[in-house]
Design a protein that fits this description.
This protein is α+β, with helices and mostly antiparallel strands and 139 residues long. The chain has one helix at residues 8-59, and strands spanning 80-86, 93-99, 108-113, 118-122. The protein has a four-stranded antiparallel β-sheet, covered by helices on one side. The N and C termini lie far apart (65 Å). The relative contact order is 0.13.
Length: 139
Amino acid sequence: MKIKGFTLIELMIVVAIVSILASIAVPAYNNYVLRGKLTEAMTELAGMRVKLEQYYQDYRNYGSGTCGVSVPASPAVKYFSYACELGTSDQFFTVTATGISTQGTGNFIYTIDQSNNKTTEISGGTPINCWARKEDGSC
């Protein structure tokens, strides 16, 4: 009678191969998911800038005391909280997207201003003069 099946060594080799593949695939997948979350901030900030410029065309300022447009809020946005601040006069603005730590974006702060200057601050470090698309700060 012939016994069919796998030996313990064969099973151990398969488990080792799957473990090696998983150790490579899981971090790559997590980075892919993070990049998808970061696009929310870039999209919302660009949209807010357009709305503020449209407001400026109508009223010749970006708001009176507060920004002339409302900031995106939950449930429309999920990964960042948004704030709009006017400068010393109503001719300047800065819109900020601050990552929500429980959503995995807490290390990121994105900003844009009336001159379309874009910055990213990652984990309290030195601001980068672009919108970083990855956690390593590359744009």
